[in-house]
Write a structure and sequence with these properties.
Layout lengths: L3 E5 L9 H9 L7 E5 L8 H14 L3 E4 L5 H5 L1 H7 L4 E4 L4 H8 L3 H11 L3 E5 L1 H4 L4 E3 L3 E3 L7 E4 L7 H7 L1 H5 L3 E5 L3 E6 L2 E6 L2 E5 L4 E5 L3
Parallel strand pairs: 1-5, 2-3, 2-4, 4-5, 8-9
Antiparallel strand pairs: 1-10, 6-7, 9-12, 10-11, 12-13
Helix pairs in contact: 4-6
Amino acid sequence: MIGQIALVGGDEFRAGCQSMDRIILQSTGTYRPKVLILPTAAAEQNPYKAASKGKSYFNNLGAETGTLLVLDRENAGDPTFVSRIGEADLIYFTGGDPELLLNVLTGSKLFEAVKHAVEGGSVLAGSSAGAMVLGSWMNYQGWKSGLGLLENIAIFPHHEKSDPDRVLSEIQAELAMGTKIIGIDSATGIFFQRGEVEILGEGKAVFYSENSYKIIRSNS
């Protein structure tokens, strides 16, 4: 695991996320942080709407917000797109289609730039699909390898819709292999920074181990 990474369970850019996102913005250490919204996961839905919503939302929180419409593999290798990653204090991947996002980013110059930026002090946030792809494993229409930024971790977003007892029984094989699985409610985030883990937002996170699970609620 590297740097500061926020994993959001979904429903980003809404009023219920403001307290969480203010904390994430403050973590940049910048008075007016530069935020870059990447609606890549929404490329086949309405990426322009997702980008515009994120820009308006973070501007209202006092950030200087731009958008980066990386919508396919060609964009993810374009030096013009890649060079903008290093300008951001906060890089934000929106929700959408996790498999599409994974396919666009895997092995791309853009994702290498994202990793370099995070290593250099930028904050990376991903919501729903944007969070799912960052783990070593992703469960979407079957288990598959993720981007591996968070080692040996798999993220289940929108987890308020799930029964933890049922989930625990369904993921026994993955847990037995040592995969750490975390369920995150919508409008809720897990923030990894400086070796610590903080739960932010409106809901809870569920941390699964091989024979049990632990529910941790936000205190923000």
